[in-house]
Amino acid sequence: MSDVVTLGSYKPARSATEGRAGADPFVSSQQVVFQRKELEVILQMYSRLVMAGHCRDYAMGFEKNQAVFSMFRHASEGAYYRITKTPALARKQGAYAVLSAHGRILRRGHELQTVLKVLEKKSLRLI
Fold first, then answer.
1. What is the DSSP letter of 81?
2. How far apart (Å, rounded) are the C-alpha atoms in residues 100 and 85?
3. CB 20: neighbour CB atoms within 10 A?
4. Long-range contacts of 66-73, Cβ-Cβ distance < 8 Å, separation of 24 or more
């Protein structure tokens, strides 16, 4: 049947890259993620866009080289806006960017709050 294993003697399986010859121990192979404060700022902007009727759904994607927060007008359509964090561009153009539905870069910069100001024009309208 099955064997009973105590948790004290259990050792998890090694990852594919652990202990590999030639692997650089100083290069992080972890994926890029948004920090808590970054997510708070992004979700505040997202909630303003929801209240204005521009967005209804969102998705987050985390990869090895960038993190993406996508906003959707309808769940069946493509992303209305995408907010990306690419640490490799932090010293050059800025780690944060806002992209339109067609992939056009609306704004890029070093600080998330200043980059998201391009979306504030969309979230505020006179009633």
1. E
2. 15
3. 9
4. 66/32, 67/31, 67/32, 67/33, 67/34, 69/34, 69/42, 71/46
Residues 12, 15, 16, 20, CA torsion sign: negative
Q: List, for residues 70-91, the tens digit of each pLDDT value.
A: 999 887 788 888 999 988 888 8
Give the 3-state secondary structure of residue 83: strand
Contacts of residue 48, defined as CB under 8 A and 6 or more positions apart, other chains included, come to: 120, 123, 124
Q: Rg (Cα) of the chain, in Å, rounded?
A: 20
How is the chain split into domains, by residue range?
36-119
To the nearest 10°, the Cα dihedral for 61, 54, 118, 71? Answer: 0
Supply φ then ψ for residue 82, to 5 degrees: -130, 130
Tokens of 89: 């561009």
In 1-127 the beta strands, taken as DSSP E runs, fall at: 57-62, 67-72, 79-85, 96-99, 105-109
Mean pLDDT of the chain: 79
